[in-house]
Amino acid sequence: MQPIATEVLIIGGGLAGLCAAIHLSKAGFEVILIEKNSYPKHKVCGEYVSNEVLPYLEFLGIDVFAEGAKRISKFELTTTNNKTISANLPLGGFGMSRYCLDAILAEKAQENGTRIVQDTVTDIQFEAHNFSVATKTGNTYRSKISIAAFGKRSNLDVTMNREFIQKKSPYLGVKTHIKAEFPEDLVALHNFKGGYCGLSKVESNAINLCYITTFKAFKKHKDIESFQEEVLFKNKALKHIFENSRPVFDVPLTISQISFETKSPVENHILMCGDSAGMIHPLCGNGMGMAIRSAQLASQLIIEYLENRIPSREALEHQYTKQWNANFSQRLSMGHAIAAIFRNDSLAALLLGLLKLCPWMLPKIIKRTHGKPMQVT
């Protein structure tokens, strides 16, 4: 069977992969995107997006508010000892489910000419200045450029022998949608011993409830319900939400082995995007924004390379790595620092006490984990 040729091959159809597909196909390049799942699909995700991405989404032809996204301007934080701290978000954001947003982006990508293939990539090789990609169904694809946007962890991370995949991660995530009374303009972060839980409304008027904890904390309890009742309910705000809501999902979604280890933005000449390139701790609430911004960085440079305005693949990879680090390394460092503080009950209490005394500090901390509105050229 002859290999299927394309200019750009994207592995993974989440936010980063789809935004890159829209951008590149909009610029007139031939794009094939391989995604193992069909659309629409729910994913474990905080489903809050910083407004920094709005200019770029508009450039891509996406109006999230026309699709029902909730405008979010306020932030609330509760502590393990039931103290509450509130602030206005410096830039604001919006709430939209991955079920809805991914489907909208996939439709736009196909409208632009992207070919979306439902399949699983099993191997990717770089030889003679081209990529050769094998899939589970037995197809082979060849491309000049390859983007990896396959998420937090994948079998391809093992195949590529990426350094972070060698280390076991202690984190697991749980996500569900619930119906309850909750302000549309609020994103809330509720801390509990061993983790934190985020809540915000999405386009369906459901509340996205997503929490992260460690396997060590979770395994002491027989199931999710026991863990929630015995651990999460010690935070009175969370207990109130759970006791005064009804579930939308039959069962919560779960994901394990979530890694916040440092990753490389380029692996074997493949440009890594979204969570494949690096994950910020969910308590910073900006993973979706980072994924979308990384797609813009990669797409703009790929266009310059394919139009011979970047002289070599080496220069392309160097510029992408440089721009990725300039945009995200400080955010990731801040995310690691905040997460480390919240893992230590004494330090967390000290920080939260300081924020109570100096509430002006909270917006400044939030700014350090977010970017400015994306420039579109």
Describe this structure in words.
This protein has two domains: 4-63 and 97-168 and 261-368, FAD/NAD(P)-binding domain; 171-257, D-Amino Acid Oxidase, Chain A, domain 2. The chain is α/β, with parallel strands linked by helices. Strands 3, 4, 5, 10, 11, 12, 13, 14 and 15 form a nine-stranded mixed beta sheet that branches. Strands 1, 2, 6, 7, 8, 9, 16 and 17 form an eight-stranded mixed beta sheet that branches. The longest helix has 31 residues, at 313-343. Helix 1 (15-26) runs parallel beside helix 3 (98-111) and helix 8 runs antiparallel to helix 9 (313-343). Strand 11 (186-192) and strand 12 (195-201) form a beta hairpin. It contains eleven helices and 17 strands. The chain has helices spanning 15-26, 54-60, 98-111, 155-159, 215-218, 224-230, 236-243, 287-306, 313-343, 345-357, 361-368; strands at residues 4-11, 31-35, 48-50, 70-78, 84-95, 115-118, 121-127, 130-135, 140-148, 171-179, 186-192, 195-201, 207-214, 246-247, 253-258, 266-267, 270-272.
> Which runs of at least 5 residues are low in confidence (pLDDT < 50)?
none
According to CATH, what is the topology of the largest domain? Answer: FAD/NAD(P)-binding domain
Portion of residues in beta strands equals 25-35%
Name the quaternary structure. single chain
From the spread of the alpha carbons, the general shape counts as globular
Q: How many strands?
A: 17
Helical residue percent band = 25-40%
Tally of individual helices: 11
Mean pLDDT: 89
* Alpha-carbon Rg, integer: 21 Å
CATH superfamily of the largest domain: FAD/NAD(P)-binding domain
Largest sheet: 9 strands, mixed
Highest CATH level, the class of the largest domain? Alpha Beta
Overall CATH architecture of the largest domain? 3-Layer(bba) Sandwich
Helix/sheet category:
alpha/beta
List the secondary-structure elements in sequence, H or E: EHEEHEEHEEEEHEEEEHHHEEEEHHHH
Overall domain count = 2
